[in-house]
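call fold(seq) -> tokens
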Amino acid sequence: MRSSGDKVARIDDVVDLRNLSQSERMQHVLRLLETRDSVPVSELSEAFSVSEVTVRSDLKALARQGLVARVRGGVRALQQGQSEVGFDLRLRLEVERKRAIARAAAALIGEGEAVAIDASTTGYYLALELRAKRELVVVTNGLLVATALADAPGITVLVPGGALRLSAMSLVGDFGTDILRTTRINKGFLGARGLSIERGLMDLNPDEVRIKQEMADACEQVWGILDGTKWHRSALLSFVSVEDLTGIVTDDSAPADQVEAWRNAGVEVVTAHLGPLEPLPVRPRDLRRATRNDGATS
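ret:
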């Protein structure tokens, strides 16, 4: 049962959604579907202060891109019955904030260290920032994280085995956790779908939560990497408690009162400020499309 302090994404979590462009409205719909199975047209129309005809046009555009599924009276996440959106979709959300967080997190990593990065989208952007470093060992269950570092000179990438979760482009299961139990890692950087002082960092999928727990247990320091939108959210399962968390790297949209509460609880909070973005070191790659193309030419 959800406690009174927990919260899932609501349209009115954002103060004012009026006068947004179509692209901005579509981004908000995708963000809502990270923690909700569906959203009705009428609710979106009221929140955005646009007609239902305009909302339906937005939702049709999202469906044409293969990002959502239309249902009578609204829209739902592609995976019926789950409040989880695919990696390639989440990679497009809050890009500026995630990249700012990634830069700040990379500054915490010294050359010669062993670090763990999970399969989160912020973890992917962190991997891109690490390409310039040397003598790193990176342990990850994220296939795109591993791909981003595969040709980086001086970086050794270790990928624990396991079962493939296509929606997260990750490997999970006993093969991976068995290896992590015998490994010592300097620092771990883990994304989350939500957080609270009472429950720590939280996520949705039991398999992902399990490997995040194993990663955290293998690390001397554990850092959460999450943008300001996650501070208003809860999720089903906890994977790192406040007592086991070294710090959080977030952006300057994180609520000041909650940031202060975490600091008072003994958790360091690093706030990244958005700045001019340089081109990505490597272009994000859709491994599913690449796999299909490779298979077609073999």
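Residues 52-64 form the longest helix (13 residues).
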